[in-house]
Amino acid sequence: MKLYTKSQVIFFTVFGIAVTAVFSIAISASLINKKSSGAKQPETQAASEPVVSIPEEINSLQELSDTVLNSVQISTDMTYTMDEKQNIGVYEKCSPAVVNINTQVTGVNWFLEPIVQDGGSGSGSIIDKRGYVLTNVHVIKGASKIYVSLSDGTQYEAQIIGQDADSDLAVIKFEPPRGTELTTIAFGDSAKLKVGQKVIAIGNPYGFDRTMTTGIISALGRPLKDASTNRIIRNMIQTDTAINPGNSGGPLLDTNGNMIGINTMIYSNSGSSAGIGFAVPAETAVRVASDLLKYGKVRRGTLELSVVQLNNTIANYANLDIARGLLVSRTTKGGNAEKAGIVQGTQAVRYGYGNTIIYLGGDIITKIDNITISSIADYYSALESKRPGDTVSVTLHRNGKDREVKIILASPDEKTTSI
User: Fold this and answer.
1) pLDDT value at position 69?
2) Where in the sequence numbering do the catalytic residues fall?
């Protein structure tokens, strides 16, 4: 290993520093000369202001950017397709008549004290300038307070005018300030709808108020059971229009802005839209809303009798040859069922957990107006659109044979009881 004396180490260190300094000065001078030769200095320059030189690369990029911006033309002439114009027209016409509905419900805290909690939310349509709103029963179910929010941001408390579980439709009312001109939605003719026809939904999915989606009618005349009421709603409109939680109670519109259905339920494994939504047809809504406004309830024709839904247990015990239908337990004395010749049961037996007394041996209702009756839900569904005074054809199974009778329906003051 080679060793150096102390004086040699000092000499080489100083020599290296001097060489490095010389090279640094030379390089700096070269760069300054290059910049000075490429840039034109101004004629006068204040002594206190530093001289800043912009590299050629930056100048070139700035010029390119200015050139590109100058070549871009922003069109002020916005054009729309016929389909877009149609959508825009329907939205501008109808969205002010679509309301956001929020509810509050009464709950109980840890100390068993009643408290007010946020309930559900949904949509509705203003159908009358006096503040009447059509929505779904399940939107306002259990509500202690109902609030309606309009398109202008104002909010009003509403009251229930009437509700009908069989169709899942309800009418509520808020009081608009005097002089307020409300926008309403007109009903369309759902009887003339065609599969493939374009439809538009406006509602408040997940609280996003007055959201519009479009689609087509996928099918017509769908019978669906409402799980919350165990009632079957017939003639539902099926659509692939995106309908999500919060759309319930909102309008399903045709391309003229007429309400041809009320969005009510969806079929989905996730709880969000899967392209299978259902709406109560306007034909049903008009009839139901009219009764709710006039009577506070829907007046349907009834059969004056009590029935029991058949099952295998009852059929085996009574030695019946069928196990589906409604067994007539009792008929009202002097009522329309007795007058039509319907036979009631005669053998009293106890049935069910409550030891309810039912009567065996009566007729079995299997059809009403050619609609098969296998359950209580079928029975109420078959009579859903019937009025007092309407005549229905009832198919009865008696002693192994079917027979048909005509019955004039009674007023709803006399109700059918069922087990």
Assistant:
1) 59
2) 138, 168, 248
